[in-house]
Design brief:
single chain; 374 residues; alpha+beta; D-amino Acid Aminotransferase, Chain A, domain 1; D-amino Acid Aminotransferase, Chain A, domain 2; ten-stranded mixed sheet; 7 helices; 19 strands; binds pyridoxal-5'-phosphate; transferase; branched-chain-amino-acid transaminase activity; BCAT-like_C; aminotransferase
């Protein structure tokens, strides 16, 4: 990109406030991604000029040429992160720098423009200040932030976009499990794959998501709540629905436990919750009792461990639920039972991780993973 092109610049932000402010729904009525705040952030980009004047304006429809490349060739990527209100009413985004880095990687992969992460974060901060009343302050509640980038230039030829747009919308959300954890049943999917080596499974592109719904519907039709993605002749577990997957095994001889998740080989979405879990577990779990592994783990290994009583627990991880306990996995007409604590809907590590991360998100424990909006 030539140096004459304008970079993303938060100091140029213009703000047009809504004249028809909305009421925020009571916390108990919040449904994930159904209602939005009063304003949105929009920044256009042009290959000749670079990033144009950023604008915060009232939330509303986008107007676009029907031949815009986003509609035909899926020039689209997105992020998902949350802002939390702490006990003092301060607003905190959780590890937003990681989302910005991932967003830039996604953009680079589909020839959309990259941008200065810090500038976008400053502008998201301004949006949060303006829409502060929509950020719930009860524990378990938060504001889901959806930064998105699309290719906007018209024309049906398949080409590098010469126009693009970032927009950021926000939705107040409640706890994923309203009445505490609810462990889910999974169906291992071996007739379709989510991602493949050399593909784009590690990028947060909209095009990765639409094809994943059908296997989930098929799992649901057979009575399972989610599907578990496998890959290759070894049937390695990659992800669960739209979450990263973790399992805990116990060594039959030493009793030492191993926390296992798939390695970042390009087929796995580089989850920020996944990264947070690995860091926290490496830092806080006793090295005498635990091994933390990023390695392949097949569905057969999980089945064998369960049969021998060596499977301790399993869970998914992602921004929406943080951790989602698994109670069973259907595979080839067999049911792999995943242990839960007696009378509970979760295993011990799943609960521990949920508590650790919530303390950091709500600023109960201070850390540089919180970006406080000043
Ligand atoms: C396919 C997929 N895997 C994993 C995740 C978890 O990522 P994160 O922890 O960053 O939310 C997500 C959600 O963003 C996802 O869409």
């Amino acid at each position: 990109m030539s140096s004459q092109l304008a970079g993303l610049d938060a100091s140029k932000l213009t703000i047009t406030k809504t004249t028809t402010p909305k009421e925020r729904l009571p916390n108990e009525q919040l449904v994930f991604g159904k209602t939005f705040t009063d304003h949105m952030l929009i920044i256009d980009w042009d290959a000749e000029k670079g990033w144009l004047t950023p604008q915060i304006k009232p939330y509303g429809p986008l107007v676009m040429d029907p031949s815009a490349c986003v509609f035909h060739y899926a020039f689209e990527l997105f992020e998902g992160l949350k802002a939390y209100k702490d006990a003092e009413g301060k607003v905190r985004m959780f590890r937003p720098d990681m989302n910005m880095a991932r967003m830039n990687k996604s953009a680079a992969r589909i020839c959309l423009p990259t941008f200065d992460s810090e500038e976008l974060l400053k502008m998201i901060g301004e949006l949060l200040k303006l829409d502060n009343k929509f950020i719930p302050d009860e524990r378990g509640y938060s504001l889901y932030i959806r930064p998105t980038m699309i290719g906007t230039d018209p024309g049906l030829g398949v080409h590098t976009p010469s126009k693009a747009q970032i927009f950021v919308i926000c939705s107040p959300v409640g706890p994923y499990y309203k009445t505490g954890f609810k462990a889910v049943s999974l169906e291992a999917t071996d007739y379709a794959v989510r991602a493949w080596p050399g593909g784009v499974g590690d990028k947060k592109l909209g095009a990765n998501y639409a094809p994943c719904i059908k296997p989930q519907l098929e799992a649901a039709a057979r009575g399972f709540q989610q599907n578990l993605w496998l890959f290759g002749p070894e049937k390695n577990i990659t992800e669960v629905g739209t979450m990263n997957f973790f399992a805990v095994f116990k060594d039959a001889v030493t009793g030492k436990k191993e926390l296992v998740t798939a390695p970042l080989d390009g087929t796995i979405l580089e989850g920020i919750t996944r990264d947070s879990i690995l860091s926290l577990c490496r830092e806080r779990l006793s090295k005498d009792e635990w091994t933390i592994s990023e390695r392949y783990c097949s569905i057969d290994e999980v089945k064998e461990a369960a049969d021998k009583g060596l499977l301790v627990e399993a869970f998914g991880s992602g921004t929406a639920a943080v951790v989602s306990p698994v109670k069973s996995i259907g595979y080839h007409n067999q049911n792999i039972e995943v242990p839960l604590l007696p009378g509970e809907q979760f295993g011990p590590l799943t609960k521990q991780i949920a508590d650790w991360i919530a303390e950091l998100q709500y600023g109960i424990v201070e850390s540089d993973w919180s970006r406080v909006i000043g």
